[in-house]
Design goal:
7 strands, 181 residues, alpha+beta, 22% helix, 4 helices
Length: 181
């Protein structure tokens, strides 16, 4: 980690039938590279926080809120002086990354109308060379996302995560596909 932090972007991407329906960009300044190493801690927190509401993990806006809440809970345990706020926050117009770009693709399988059977996350970590920001004034989260070079040559870590409900509680399985960390 550098003295100025470890700045990363985190993209939460919602899909329906292989089409992007929503893109939520987040940004972290200080502790961005720890998300991949702390992934299991975040997944356990996410399962606990949603209780039996599996469908919460299929909504990228709720996942963004859960990620920020998890980050805030972790910051409360750090030995800091003064006010402390979550490190992970909405990206807004910030264009400042010095290490990684995370991407979490979110899809779900349903049975009947509105009954979520399982939620899948494709959790990926890329080096910062994927970034290709759009011109100022033309930026939108989806335009920026679609402009990035999401090729495997920049992929450093990938895990497929499946959430299901078992005995009234949301659980997960994780399979690491790529690990170059």
């Amino acid at each position: 980690m550098t003295s100025l932090g470890d700045r990363v972007e985190i993209w939460l991407v919602g899909y329906e039938e292989d089409k992007i329906v929503n893109v939520i960009p987040l940004w972290a300044h200080w502790l961005g590279s720890t998300l991949a190493t702390d992934l299991d801690l975040f997944l356990e927190f996410a399962c606990d926080i949603v209780g039996d509401q599996l469908h919460f993990l299929a909504d990228e806006t709720k996942v963004a809120s859960i990620l920020i809440a998890w980050d805030f809970m972790n910051t409360l345990t750090l030995p800091c002086v003064g006010d402390w706020v979550p490190d992970i926050r909405p990206r807004g117009r910030i264009r400042d990354v010095d290490s990684y770009v995370y991407r979490i693709d979110i899809t779900c399988k349903t049975e009947r109308v509105f009954f979520v059977k399982s939620v899948m996350w494709d959790f990926m970590l890329y080096d910062k060379d994927v970034i290709s920001w759009t011109e100022e004034g033309e930026e939108s989260p989806k335009a920026d996302f679609l402009n990035y070079n999401w090729s495997d040559e920049h992929l450093l870590f990938r895990a497929d995560i499946t959430f299901t409900k078992y005995k009234g509680k949301v659980t997960y399985t994780k399979e690491t596909i790529v690990d170059k960390l």
